[in-house]
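Retro notes, item 3 of 5
We never archived the inputs for the manganese (II) ion complex last cycle. Fixing that now. Sequence and ligand:
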Amino acid sequence: ARMEAGLREALQRNRGLRLFIQPQVRLSDWTMTGGEFLLRWEDPELGSVPPSQFIPAAEQSGLIVDLGKWVLDQAVAWLAEWNQGAVVPGLYGAVNVAAPELHDPAWAEGVLERLRRHGVAGSALEVEVTERVLAGPEGGATVANLQHLRQAGVRVAVDDFGTGYSSLAYIHRLPIDSVKIDKQFVDPLPAPEGTTPLASVILEMAAGMGLETVAEGIETAEQGEALDAMGCTYGQGFLYARPVPAETFPDCIRKWN
Ligand code: G
Ligand code: G
Ligand code: MN
Ligand code: NA
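Structure as it came back at the time:
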């Protein structure tokens, strides 16, 4: 309850919420291509609260819808600024989206309206949806929202891919562009000689479905090399960069690329 009150206050006063972004690189040459926006919250009394705590609280209280709007407003404004500054061609940012947002039939139109208002191309934005949300109740509204976004060039990534319960037949029919290989499949890499790691099975499957691939939680150069060799295109993890405050992202890319 304290957390809910604090979050509501943060939204009302626009205070204590901050957008970070974790860079993503092309595994073949380590070029930074874009990143994943991650929300941070510092409450005057509770201090810095991790998203693993405040996101579930925001989902339960319904505040996640307003929080999601705050994140989208900020993210799209940053994308507009970065693309005017021509930081790198084709630079994109990914935003995490929660179930209650996707269950609102008007959600996608709200996203597109923000892109238009800021003059940002759909292709500069990606949305990350977990496999659990895609397979969950009210899948109809969710799928319609995602289809609407994709028609405008916004890409849809499945977060935590391989950790949910979806059947392949189901995933195959979803309006998605890419999958994020969960850290739990990256941790055991590189696999012992003569064994087939699950990451490689998932990557083959994704390729077979024509999906783009991003691996998460890469911490060692050996993991990055193994994933590149298995055909994974993009990577994200502490090996390359930790999440950075959004305002420092262009500098981070210029120094890196
Ligand atoms: O660094 P990390 O602790 O930021 O993120 C933890 C979890 O919080 C991740 O699963 C991430 O998807 C989620 N998360 C971070 N920012 C957002 C956000 O803006 N919206 C939603 N729905 N989830 C987020
Ligand atoms: O949305 P998602 O659950 O994928 O959020 C990504 C989470 O993973 C964030 O909390 C982010 O800080 C964290 N993360 C990103 N890269 C690494 C990494 O290399 N190692 C670890 N332990 N966590 C990471
Ligand atoms: Mn994510
Ligand atoms: Na993830």
